[in-house]
Each structure stands twice: as structure tokens, then as C-alpha cells.
DNA sequence: GGTTGTGAAGTAATTCACAGCT
DNA sequence: AGCTGTGAATTACTTCACAACC
């Protein structure tokens, strides 16, 4: 009888806003590093490439943290955004697949920075087991369930070939992981309640190719007929 | 005097649709590999994780390629989507930055598949120059302009550390590249007419952390007070 | 004077629901 | 009978423009 689960709709922040908060956060950290104390929506918007009204509306969803006539205090805003994003606590991440991509991810500075901790690197390939990558020893995929439980992993990163991705995902989910970041070029199937985000190189390239083609067709030629293939 | 460039707005396909076409395309190729000849919007929607009405509307922007009562012919739809995305021609790609990420990208199968050709791998670090990666010899960054001109590069991929990204981007743009795919965690500045897409691991993690925190706050506790930190 | 926060207006994307074709 | 293609309705997001405040 339960109606078709209208999702407990975020009593809060629009998804589009959530996706921009990390961008603001990074820009703010840059300002902080340079010792800048306050910033206006106009300035912060410019450095992050958004419209200033949008930035103000985004921030207004978190609360009223600016000062009229002055702007936003950089450190305070960093704290508020971090808190909203859940970065004031540490999240354990497990990376499965230690090929070039997995290594790139493991060595990526962004992990080390506040908020994330790599709990384990796992792979099925015996030839990389025991390798040390980013200070961690690569473990066997069979230990996935143990690692998730023991290290309290909440985010699983899939950097395996496409063919293994769904299986790894299933194991993550079965072990209790509810957030997955997928680099394999497949659509993952997960039960409700599990969030999946995907990063897909070839999709990005194809989107660029589309626009590139548009530029070639449309502008350069100034051909009013455009579309026609012949 | 030119007004603030209201962008020659695509006389066509919504951006949200463009971003999904590659997903449909991949699913269709999977069906084709399995010898499946036709597919309904319902079925294709299910395997790509979208609503079937959305899928039909997306496809309707390309033309009327289905058959009522039957569905879509798989091969024909593959061809039409490929054509729309500009994949019936080959695009030359240059990758700058041959660390783990650059290597992962170079070896990524998605490139090889129809539509993209890696024209060059470039790096500033003398220690990797001349290395062979994915069958290509790594060249020096100073040859960027030559390579872009000679190989007719239309998409530049930036896989360098953050600090070098803007400079590499400027050189790409100066050399005539109008599409950039950026993996470095910085907001790139480009003139109008140049498309930039970014892929940013830490943004994805932070978005997941946000939702993870929501799940922890909201559901598990069933605490009606939620928000308050103490 | 300067800048935020936000209703109201405008634009884009999604979903519904069904006419129209096979 | 089955499935597409699409107007109409809905929902989400963006931008404008200005009152409120420092």
C-alpha cells in the first residue's frame, strides 16, 4: 500500500546547489591561503564562474552567513560549507581496482585533504597485491567485506574494468556501503537508498565532440541551411 | 557595444539531452553486440536508468526514428545518435600530463573506439619524455603548438597538476583548440567560444558525503530535530 | 555607498497522459 | 494491441531587481 515512494525529498538544499558548494569551497580555501578575510558574492562568483545572484541564492540555502555592505567572512563560510557538506567528519573510502586510474586516485591530493581517508586499496590481480601505493599496501578483493566492516567504509570507489564493476558494486552494497563513485563505463544497478555518481571519460569527450561539431557546422560556414547532410 | 553575447543558443538539442545521448549510445552498442535488433523506449530506458518518457523526448529531438507499435531499430539508432554527437568523424585529442592519470586516460579503451584518436601525449617532466604509453611516445610540452597544428587537434585534455592547468589551457586556446577536458582541480578561464568540461574527483566525493550525511542525520536516527549540531 | 537575501519573473527540464500510427 | 511522439502540466533552476541592512 505504501505509495510509490515520493522520496523523503530533501527538506533542503537543491541538488544543483549541492553540486556547486564544493567549487565555492575550493575557491574560498584559495582566498584563505592568500590571507584574504572577506569576499563579496560578486568576487567569489567571478572566480568560480557563476552568476552572483545564483551564488547568493545558493548560500542562502545554508543560512544567512553574509553581512550586507561587507560580504562573507572567508573562514566562517568555509566552516559552514564544510559542515553542510559533511566534511567536518572523516569519511572512509575504499578503492577497488589499482590500475593506473586507481593509482592516480590514491595519489590524488584531494583525498588527503580534510574529509576523506583512504581505508583500503583492493584488487583482484595477484600481480599488484602487496604493492605499496600512496603509503598503503594493496589488499585482495576478497577482503572487501572485512575492510568495509572494520574500517567503517562509507564510500566505495570503483576503478575496475567495466566487466567487474557491477559485481564489485553489489559486494559494496551487500556489505553496507551506501555511496558509490563509479569510474567504469557501465550503468550500475543499485537498490533505493544507495547513491551512485559516475565519472565517465568517454561521455565527456562525446559531449565535447557534439559542441565541436556544432561550432564547425554552424558558425564557420555561416551556412543558413545547416542541418542538411548533403 | 556588442551586447553580453546571449550565445547563439542551440537551435536544437537541450543540453540535458546531449549529456544523456552517450549513455543511450553505449547501451545500444551493448544490445547490438548481443545481436538484438529492436528495442522499446521502455526497455532502453530501464537499462540506462531513465524514465521512458524522457528517453522518447530525448530521441524525438534527433528526429522520428522509431516505429509505433514496434520500437527502435538498434543499428539505425546507433547511427543516428553517433551522427548527432559528431562521432562519424574522428576527433584528434592531445593529452597533457602523463602521470598516472594521463596514463590511465591514454590506455582507456573509450578513446580507441570510434570517434577519437590520441594525437599526442605531452609532458613537461624530462623523466617521462620518450616513454612509450599506449603505443605513443611522450613528447615535450614545448611541441604543443606544433602538434595542435599538424595533427589538427580539436580536443585538449589537461591531466596536469592544478598549478599548470591554466597555462596549458591558455596554450591550447592560443593554438586554436576550442574544446578542453580538464581533470585538474581548478576553474579554467577561457574566452567565449571555447567549451570546457571538468572532471573533478573531490567534487564528486563531496557530493556523496553530503548525501551520506543526510542519510545518517535524517533516516537512521529518525530524529525530528535533525539539523541542530548540539 | 555597498552588498546581502529574496520575492517575483523567466527559462529549462521532467513527467504525464493520450492521440496517432503500425 | 502495442509503442511512439508530443502537447500540456508540473517541477526545478536561474536570473532579475530591489528592499533591507551595515
Could you walk me through the main structural features you see in this protein, from its secondary elements to its overall organization?
Chain A has 230 residues and is of the alpha/beta class. Chain A has three domains: 71 residues, Winged helix-like DNA-binding domain superfamily/Winged helix DNA-binding domain (Arc Repressor Mutant, subunit A, Orthogonal Bundle), CATH 1.10.10.10; 109 residues, 3-Layer(aba) Sandwich (Rossmann fold); 28 residues, no CATH class. In chain A, 44% of the residues lie in helices and 18% in strands. Chain A has nine helices and eleven strands. Chain A has a six-stranded parallel β-sheet, with helices on both faces. Chain A has a three-stranded antiparallel β-sheet with strand order 1-3-2. Chain A has a two-stranded antiparallel sheet with strand order 6-7. The longest helix of chain A has 20 residues. Chain A is globular. The N terminus and C terminus of chain A are likely disordered. At the A-B interface, helix 1, helix 4, helix 5 and helix 9 of A face helix 1, helix 5, strand 10 and helix 9 of B. The structure holds a DNA duplex (22 and 22 nucleotides).
Which helices and strands, and how do they pair?
Two copies of one chain form a homodimer.
Chain A: H1 15-33, E1 38-39, H2 41-48, H3 52-60, E2 66-67, E3 71-73, H4 74-85, E4 91-96, H5 100-107, H6 109-112, E5 116-123, E6 132-133, E7 136-137, E8 139-140, H7 144-151, E9 153-158, H8 162-174, E10 179-182, E11 195-198, H9 201-220
Parallel strand pairs in A: 4-5, 4-9, 5-8, 9-10, 10-11
Antiparallel strand pairs in A: 1-3, 2-3, 6-7
The structure holds a DNA duplex (22 and 22 nucleotides).
